[in-house]
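User: My advisor asked me to double-check a structure prediction for DHA2 family efflux MFS transporter permease subunit before group meeting. I don't want to rely on an old file, so could you generate it fresh from this sequence?
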Amino acid sequence: MAAKGLARAMIVITTISAAVMELLDTTIVNVALNQMAGSLGATIEDVAWVVTSYAIANVIIIPMTGFLGDYFGRKTYYLGSILLFGISSYFCGASHGLWELVFWRFIQGVGGGALLSTSQAILFDAFEPKDRPIASGIFGMGIILGPTLGPALGGYIVEHFTWQDIFFVNIPICIAATILTILYIERKEGEGQKKDKIIIDYPGIFLLMLGIGSLQYVLEKGESDDWFESRTIVILSLSAVVGLVGFVWRELTTEHPVVDLKIFRYKVFGLSTIFTFVAGLGLFTSVFVYPVMVQRINGFTPLETGLSLIAPTMLGVILFPVIGRRMAAGDSPLPYMAIGILIFVFFGFYSGTATPEMGKWDFFPMQVCRVLGVAMLQMPLINQAVAGLQQREYPAGIALTNMIRQLGGAFGIALANNYVTNAAAQHRSDLMANMTMDNPLFVQRLNGSIANFASKTGDYFGATKMAYAQLEGLVAKQAYYLAYLDTYRVVSLFFIAIFPLLLLLRTKKKTKEEIAAAAKAAADSH
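Assistant: Sure, here is a fresh prediction for DHA2 family efflux MFS transporter permease subunit from the sequence you gave:
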């Protein structure tokens, strides 16, 4: 039953706060990775697990939110998720080691995975059917503002306080959301009373966790551990194969799957997941690489990094509702997807032309392209994914779509880490090949540096060592910058590869009833 007056206002505040908090935490840490690495004595490549572990937890929990809500009752599950998110946020901030932080970040992701989809469903039920487009609009603003405010808020906190405070800031929000949930969110009739009728697919859940967790470790650590020369990598590679193959077999053969994989029998849905995976890869990788690159090479502060992302991202506040209305009116998602893919291709190659001297406003046009690409892809992809499904299969289809997007993001971050490490080594080797005494430009630069240091220290031998060290630092910096630029181009190649697959997709004109059912499923499943 729809809420009224103050109760509805409190539900809006509660659900939007929880959703924004979850989304904010997906991006708030990106601007603090350098500070975390320094504080915890870890490399940038290892500290990326702080981002990846959260994404992995989301991948595992998102497709199970509907099942868990039915089992525990939606209000109980929602309340428990808020508490879990708040408690794990405290332990993230209190962590003294990298892997302790990664563990609690994973637990935070388990709690956060429910906040977004369940918040949207609760908000949807608080409005009469005729007013639900208003609810969708309100929630859409939250979806955009969360990731937008994350880097800016994270940058401000890191610059004026400590990186630990980006986690502690969640605690008062969680306390307020807990109180408001207890007071204002009502239980649905029969909520939490289906436990005796629900069969839990424990093997499916275990196999999903085993497969995804093992695969992600192999992707993240394979390069640094020399791949299959490492016994750990070999064992976890086998675990990934066993887990993922076993999970697929289990979900296709059991009568009560935790994730309904049988909808992959629809060609349109199967093809759509390829686009969703690549879209997630592009979104997460570009948002991950940019803050690390501009702080490490261009000298941006965390706050400057966050602020440089706000202005272009605010375009999404305008675009998402517009595209949403067009999808609700029955527009085919294919033209939007085609434009979004082409924009992302352009964005990757355009970003590959950046220079170390660029300031935050110089990156503005590049970030605008990123936002345009995301806006043109995300919502149309959900509509495309369910285009060939039966109405009763919409929730499963949308949940799987969200899971695949998060999985693409986790894969993209792992890819970026490994690629940057390899590409930087290759670029360094290429640059060092020019640093010989046969190169007059190198000799001139070296002698100039030696003379400069010698004039300050009076020690020619020491000045020579300092000059070589300075040049080595410049080469390493340039090598990493070239590697980051190459990463953007690699992302473009993924989008180029999937573009021809658009020719294999077909969509039929949906009826008003089907459009309404898809909107309801999106609300229930995120």
